[in-house]
Write a structure and sequence with these properties.
single chain, alpha+beta, about 35% helix, 5-stranded mixed beta sheet, about 350 residues, globular
Length: about 350
C-alpha cells in the first residue's frame, strides 16, 4: 500500500534546497553568447539590463544541473575513442572564456578538441547539449542550425573569437541516451553580424525594436519579459534599469548621478536615486516633463499625472513596482498609497 505523500516530503525538501541556492535573480553580468541567437533584440536588451526577475523551480534547477553533469561524460566518451579534449584552459584552470564588446559580451566554452575521426588534423570548438525526445528528433531531422539556432550562433561566436574554423556539436537524448554529432563550419559573415548585433544591444540606451507587436505571438508568450514588453508590469529595480547608469569599457558600469563606477553587487540592488529609463514604462505612461533628478509622466488610460524622483513628494521606483493598478499612480494618491504600503509591511511582519 502506498502511503500518502506529506506536504513536507523528502522530494519537496530536495527541490527547496535547489531553490534556496538561487542567487542574483538569474542575471548575468554580461550579455551571453549562449542567448545572442535569440530572434528578438528587445528581449536581449531586457536581459542585459536585468529587467525581469527570473526564478526557477527546484525541478528545473535540477534539470539545468543534469545538463552540466553530462559534460564530463561527453568528454570521457570523446577521449575513449582517441579524441584529445580540453575542457579547461590550462592557463587559468577554468573553462575557456571568450569576450568582446569591451568585455560586456562573451561566454564559456564547453571545450576544444583535436583528432575527430571526420577530420583528424583540425581543431574544433566542442559544444555539449542535452535534449528532450522531441528536441532530439528535430535535431536529427533538421540539424543544429535550423532546429537550435541559438546553439548554432553560440558556436559561431566561439569559433570567431577563438579563430578556430570548425565546431563539433555533441548532444544526447535524455530519454534514450542516443547520441548525435555534427561538425559545424565557421561562417565569418554570420559571426561578424552576430558580434555587431551584440554591440548594438550593449550600446543602446533604450530598448530596441520588439520582435512582434502581438502579445499572443508564440515567441512573445514564452518570453521572460512578456509582462513588461506587452503589459503594464514595471521592471525590476536595479542600476541597469536606471537612466543614470550606462555600460562603459572593461565590462564596467558608470553612474552619472554620483559620477562613479558601480560594483556588480551594487548594480543588483540600485539606490535611492533610481529613476527608470522612461521607455521601460512607456506602455502605460508617457513623459511630459523632467528635471535632473525627476520625471513627470501622464497615464495614457486616465490622463492623470504622477512624478517619480528622490524627493519625499515624488514616487520612488520601488513604489511604482508595488502599485498594481497603475491608474492609482497620481500625485494626489501618493500619501494614501504609502499608508497602504506601510500597513501591508506591518501585517506581513506580524
Amino acid at each position: 500500500m502506498q502511503l500518502p505523500e506529506s506536504q513536507h516530503s523528502t522530494i519537496n525538501a530536495i527541490y527547496q534546497h535547489y531553490e534556496q541556492l538561487q542567487t542574483g535573480h538569474g542575471w548575468r553580468a554580461h550579455l551571453g553568447a549562449s542567448i545572442i541567437g535569440k530572434s528578438c533584440e528587445r528581449a536581449l536588451w531586457y536581459d542585459f539590463h536585468w529587467c525581469s526577475i527570473k526564478s526557477h523551480t527546484g525541478q528545473m534547477l535540477r534539470l539545468f544541473e543534469t545538463g552540466h553533469l553530462a559534460e564530463d561524460r561527453f568528454a570521457a566518451n570523446l577521449r575513449a575513442v582517441g579524441i584529445k579534449v580540453w575542457t579547461v584552459d590550462p592557463n587559468t584552470g577554468k573553462q575557456f572564456r571568450v569576450s568582446a564588446c569591451q568585455d560586456h559580451f562573451g561566454g564559456s566554452m564547453d571545450g576544444v578538441g583535436h583528432g575527430f575521426l571526420e577530420a583528424p588534423s583540425q581543431w574544433h570548438i566542442i559544444e555539449m547539449k542535452t535534449h528532450s525526445e522531441k528536441s532530439f528528433k528535430s535535431l536529427e531531422k533538421d540539424g543544429v542550425q535550423k532546429s537550435k539556432p541559438q546553439h548554432f550562433t553560440q558556436m559561431q561566436v566561439y569559433m570567431h573569437l577563438q579563430q578556430i574554423d570548425r565546431a563539433y556539436y555533441i548532444a544526447v537524448n535524455k530519454n534514450t541516451d542516443a547520441l548525435y554529432g555534427e561538425r559545424v563550419k565557421y561562417d565569418k559573415s554570420y559571426a561578424e553580424n552576430t558580434l555587431a548585433k551584440a554591440a548594438r544591444i550593449i550600446a543602446s540606451d533604450r530598448p530596441l525594436e520588439k520582435l512582434n507587436d502581438d502579445p499572443s505571438w508564440y515567441e512573445c508568450k514564452l518570453c521572460d519579459h512578456h509582462a513588461i514588453c506587452h503589459g503594464e508590469q514595471v521592471p525590476a529595480v536595479n542600476c541597469r534599469t536606471c537612466l543614470h547608469a550606462s555600460a562603459v569599457d572593461h565590462g564596467q558600469w558608470h553612474c552619472a548621478r554620483f559620477n562613479l563606477l558601480i560594483p556588480e553587487n551594487n548594480q543588483r540592488v540600485g539606490c535611492q536615486a533610481h529613476l527608470f529609463i522612461p521607455d521601460l514604462i512607456q506602455l502605460f505612461a508617457e513623459v511630459i516633463d523632467s528635471g535632473e533628478y525627476w520625471i513627470r509622466y501622464y497615464l495614457k488610460k486616465t490622463g492623470e499625472c504622477f512624478i517619480t524622483g528622490e524627493a519625499p513628494e515624488q514616487f520612488n521606483s520601488h513604489e511604482l513596482c508595488a502599485v498594481e493598478d497603475k491608474a492609482l499612480l497620481t500625485d494626489n494618491n501618493i500619501q494614501t498609497l504609502r499608508s497602504t504600503f506601510n500597513a501591508q509591511l506591518v501585517n506581513n511582519a506580524a
